Automatic annotation (TrEMBL):
The lineage of its organism: Bacteria, Bacillati, Actinomycetota, Coriobacteriia, Coriobacteriales. This is HIT domain-containing protein. One of its GO terms (molecular function) is catalytic activity. It comes from Atopobium minutum 10063974. A motif (Histidine triad motif) lies at residues 96-100. The active site is at 98 (tele-amp-histidine intermediate).
Length: 112
């Protein structure tokens, strides 16, 4: 996926505000934040979405990123939301798997 922006961001080929990374996944600030903390957690390998053949090791690497993000941004105890959009009805705009980590304020009760 040579033209995928999140592949480039995750591998450091384009500068970004990297919050944390490990061997298999990266966490960087969303360019248009919807909350005081809005970080995207992505695998370094390209997967279109959550159901696009993501292996368990990569998923656990992404979970580790979430844990590091909430610790480093100070929202672990106040609470946070993790969500991923898949496909058109969910409004997925970037076709590289990403988990939104949102927090730092009282989040909306509406999920749909
Ligand atoms: P989606 O709607 O696909 O779930 O979310 C895509 C997210 O990626 C949006 O929140 C959008 O602000 C963010 N985004 C899109 N392009 C870029 C980019 O080039 N850099 C960063 N850091 N975030 C981006
Ligand atoms: Zn990609």
């Amino acid at each position: 996926m040579s033209d995928c922006i999140f592949c480039k961001l995750a591998k450091g080929e384009i500068p970004t505000t990297m919050v944390y990374q490990n061997e298999l996944a990266a966490a960087f600030a969303d360019a248009s934040p919807l909350a005081p903390v809005h970080v995207l957690v992505v695998p370094k390998a390209h997967h279109d979405n959550l159901l696009d053949g993501v292996d368990a090791q990569t998923l656990m690497a992404m979970v580790e990123c979430v844990e590091q993000v909430v610790q480093r941004t100070g929202i672990k105890d106040s609470g946070f939301r993790v969500l991923t959009n898949v496909g058109a009805d969910a409004g997925q705009t970037v076709n590289h798997l990403h988990w939104h980590v949102l927090g730092g304020k009282r989040l909306s009760d509406q999920l749909a």
